[in-house]
TrEMBL record:
<feature type="domain" description="ABC transmembrane type-1">
    <location>
        <begin position="104"/>
        <end position="376"/>
    </location>
</feature>
<feature type="domain" description="ABC transporter">
    <location>
        <begin position="409"/>
        <end position="633"/>
    </location>
</feature>
<dbReference type="InterPro" id="IPR050173">
    <property type="entry name" value="ABC_transporter_C-like"/>
</dbReference>
<dbReference type="GO" id="GO:0005524">
    <property type="term" value="F:ATP binding"/>
</dbReference>
<keyword id="KW-1133">Transmembrane helix</keyword>
<feature type="transmembrane region" description="Helical">
    <location>
        <begin position="318"/>
        <end position="336"/>
    </location>
</feature>
<dbReference type="InterPro" id="IPR011527">
    <property type="entry name" value="ABC1_TM_dom"/>
</dbReference>
<feature type="transmembrane region" description="Helical">
    <location>
        <begin position="97"/>
        <end position="116"/>
    </location>
</feature>
<feature type="compositionally biased region" description="Basic and acidic residues">
    <location>
        <begin position="645"/>
        <end position="662"/>
    </location>
</feature>
<dbReference type="GO" id="GO:0140359">
    <property type="term" value="F:ABC-type transporter activity"/>
</dbReference>
<protein>
    <submittedName>
        <fullName>Uncharacterized protein</fullName>
    </submittedName>
</protein>
<feature type="transmembrane region" description="Helical">
    <location>
        <begin position="136"/>
        <end position="156"/>
    </location>
</feature>
<dbReference type="Pfam" id="PF00664">
    <property type="entry name" value="ABC_membrane"/>
</dbReference>
<keyword id="KW-0677">Repeat</keyword>
<keyword id="KW-0812">Transmembrane</keyword>
<dbReference type="InterPro" id="IPR017871">
    <property type="entry name" value="ABC_transporter-like_CS"/>
</dbReference>
<dbReference type="Pfam" id="PF00005">
    <property type="entry name" value="ABC_tran"/>
</dbReference>
Amino acid sequence: MPGPFAPITGGRVSEVVNQEAALCKSSSCLPTSNKENKVDKFCKDYEDFISVSDAHKTFISNWEQEKKKTEQPDEKPYKMLLRCLWTSFRYDFFKAFFSKLTWSVLVIFSIYYFVFDILDFINKRDKEIPINRGEYYEFYLCGGFFAAMFVLSIGIQQMGIYSSILGSKVKAALTTEIYKKMIVRDPYGSKADVVALVAKDVEKLAEACLSLQYLWSGIFETLAALAVTLILLGATILPGVALMAIFMPLQYYMGMVVAYRKKDLAKVSDKRISLMEEIMRSIKLIKIYGWEASFFKNLNEIRAEESRLVDGINNYKSTILGLIFCLPPMLCVVIFGTKEAMGEIESVVVFTAMSFFNTLRVPFSKLPKSLRDVLDALSSMERIQAFLLEPELSVAEKKNDAPSNHQGITFRNACLSYGMDGAILLKYVNLNIPQGALMMVAGSVASGKSNLLKSILGDMTMRSGQCLTPASKAYVPQTPWTALGTVRDNIVFGLPFDEAFYRKVIFACALEPDLKMMPLGDQTWIGERGGNLSGGQKQRIALARAAYSRAKLYVLDSPLSAVDMYTCQHIFKLCIKDIMIAGGGTVVLATHQTELFYMSDHLVVMKENNVVYNDKYSFKGIKHLFPNFCGDEVAESTQAGSSQKVEHPAPSDPHTDPQDILEHPEHGVKVTHDALVPLKRHPPMTPSPSTKKIITKPHAESEGSIYWWYIQKIGVCLFTTATLIFIIGQIFRVYSDNWVSVWTKRKYEPERTADSFYAGLYGLLVFVFLCMSFLRAFFYYRTGKVGAMNIHDAAFGAALKAPMHFFHVTPVGKLLAFFSKDVEIIDDQLVDNILMFQIMFWIFIMACGVVAYNLVFFLVIVAGLAVVYIYTVYNYIQASVPLMRAAEESGSHVVAHTAETLSGLAVVRAFRMEDRFVNENVGLQAKSAVATFSIANLSLWLAYRVDLIGALLVLGCCLLAVVDTSMDAPIAGLIVSNSFQILLFFSIMSRLMGDFHDNMKSVNMARELCDLEAEQEPEQEVEPPAQWPSKGEIRFEGVVMPYLPGQPPTLKGINFSIGEGEKIGVVGRTGAGKSSLIVALYRLAEISEGSIHVDNINCANVNLHKLRSSMAIIPQEPVMFSGTLRYNLDPFNQHTDEALWDVLRKCLLGPVIESNKDGLNTKVELMGSNFSLGTQQLICLARAMLNPSRILLLDEATAALDSDTNAAVQQVLQKHFSHRTIFTIAHRLDTIIDSDRILVMNAGVVAEFDTPHNLLEDHDSIFHELCMNTGKAQFEVLAARARALANERK
């Protein structure tokens, strides 16, 4: 894994002992040089503090008990989970509680005792009143004050440690349980966003562990400060109490409003994240269609709605913040005014009370955010609890699964549905398939084949009847799933590595030629979703995974549709027959390839979710179901010609001569066993070396530049103006405090003797500060929102413009983690933290200025301690940079792994790999927990030293005040009061600096996205005609194209030309480079040599959007987006409903859509999950028909269609696309046999390019061999059609 962390090997987590030693140890542990090694050591110091497995074990035992004893689990939205968390981790909470209590008590005690007595000493000395406290009493007071500050600092650090541990345990327990629940839950009917639960909601609960301490302590400190002030000031405090009685409920009310409005904001944010997930998963199709602008607009509309809600929330937050910092001076106005009216105010009492009131700014500033965090956590807890209480598939599986020794498949009157509340789709299904049999499942598009397969896997809910299957299963889905890792990792899939059997499997799955062409053989890194593989390669890797598992039941959903005929026969014999069935396994094969039916032991035909044929294969029995099927002829010819089949070489023996060569019979691709890299461990989650530098180099050489980059996104003028408002407001605040000292000694008597003069001017200063306080909050929230919007738009725009190879090697989960968690941090937490930092910073600076103005020697102390502070902060920043990057990487890997598992959940369940994936997730969590905990402790390391520096400043200030015999009491009161502010706000400022420095890792991620290399636009752009292409001519000239920079080319000198209106068929074995031709044409990967011309215009000189939107395509992997059918057909609203209905009917979808009452407004679920793959391909055909382009590209467009529907689609193409140039890639030879010419690809080069008839006449041609492999009867049909076409065109 990237990042400086060694793997966590587990081990018992010790209880937190010697924490202070870990925290307070010398700075030699800091990575000030050789950062990568020292950070590793720094993190290892905390490995024993958190155990993900132990935390989950504690939680799950209590959670199971809670579910058993709660009869009505939905009575309270979050009560069960809250009670369970309390039972599991309450001791950690109490440790933090008592640490915070220590801090609160010491703060109140220090002001009441030390500040009061120091001021009283100076006052008595000033008035020459005898002090009977013994010699050096004043120095004892100063020393005691310093000692109290030291212990106070330890208390707050310990509270931070225990809260961090508590948050880490809560996060670990819930993330693990959410992941485990995701694997076993019944997903049908669930609206839960699992990725959002892991990326956002769990984080909110972890953050609330700290906020909860500030919430209760804020109330306690406020009441304690008022009680002590009552002792000092007596009844004159009552107006202040009345003011507090108004303020506190108002503050809590507005805090509640903010929390509930954030619930509405969360709903809108979830919509944005869901759309973002679809965009990221479908980015290839979006680029191909040129739909970037449409999706950018759609996402920005949601973002604008978020912005409107954020504005309302920020208005409340600004009001709360303004009141927080206005309340202390307002209390001083009403209380001191009342005191003055009832008698003369005294400096000792006044400045002690002011110290209390100024201290109240600390809990007041924490209360709103703490309240919001706790309420947000309760909302998150509600969502998490609802998810954890969802029904599980295991309930159905307990009914379905037979004992582990059950042989074959048995269904007895089985009725199945998706979820207990769903409609029953499969009714009274009866099957009795013996062990070792081959059962084929066929039927037209959307007939229910996949439903039957899912029922066999146990992924449907058993409503009645019985289903018995072996426990050992393997599954190859219709859309193949690959995990992030190497080819070998995907095939072995966590099982022990058996090299001999592994070689046999990859040979049986026809993967050896592909591995030879891959740069690192079977150690080649597969990007998420297998973006750097062809469709056939992905399908065969999925097949190899199933074969390697040695399962007792293999469920294969159309795995042969993406491979050529030779490879199909090769796989069928050597993989399905010789490995799966010969190994004692039962095979269920869903297929549209009717020519294979005769080889089945049992055939099931589905129609409208009903079993219409359920018996051994009989041509007469199924002829009426497949009108175009000539089964007997194919069977007889194949059986008759079986003796003439090409002999397959024996599987490779690892002990044979290393120069032993495997040769593809008709393609001539020679493959040595060097394709199999010797067994070695590949670093997990790490791309191959050639794919690492996808984004520009991070600006590690100048970490400060990230702050400047952020200010630029806000706007330098806006940020400067906001800072000036902070400074001006704090000047008025400081002058109002200074005026109190003037007031207490009546400086302007006898000219100004009226009390109203002093009280009135003080009230005026406070009023001005009140206005500035509200203004700075309102203005900065607006400023921060501008920056957040600019950053989001820039990052999203850069992601849309990134080249495809970026998405091949970047997990979707990592991108989703940024656009969910990191965007929320930039929107909310970062703005809050910088705003509070600015306030605390200028309070600290002004307080130091007041003390230095009256005690010049204090500047010497400040200068000396400033050097220590700068050195400490420098070390902190040096250490935090690699830690933050590692925490960012490790955290995003947890989210990415969750998203990856979710996309391949059916495969993980079928292979019974739940435990393996859970263990992997726990391991990733462990690394993330260590990184996060290390950062938290590094921040506490800084805060502890900052507190010591602050305590030394206070000590120096107090000592200077008591030794200066010329200082009067009011000035001393002002100095001591400000010195205490220095301590409190210097500490808080440093913590906030650590918080927003931590937040900046989200900004850094945004900058990395913004710095992505964009797809190459032409340097000298050519503007093609408005109707370009008007002819549809295509010309490739010496085209060489690698998929990734620095990788060997996939296309190697391609030359061919296509005339206007020509119909070109493209064939070749899987991985030969067929789809790469389309990639090059669409410039999804840039060619390194040669040129491509369309209508005599070089595509390299055409704007990408114009190029891609000017061609129509039906892609190999159809994609649909959540929304409506109309939106999926016409996202730009360019066509009328009548036009859409017309193309739907032409594309054979009229009856399907008309049967739905919603028509064009039919709801489309996420990624089109409620439509079969075949239906999705027909919808893509309708999209292509709406595009009037003269060029139509079909990439395995009918692979998921049955033969009858395929024949109908071919008629649609001939009738409605006759005027277009059509470029068809297909493995079904009957799909392209009517083409004008056939382009045969082999190993990235054009092997043959001629008419079908001429190629079939050449018995040495590859195309002739491909046609022969279909069987004699089918070959004669193909040859007859080619002859007829040739005669017709003479």
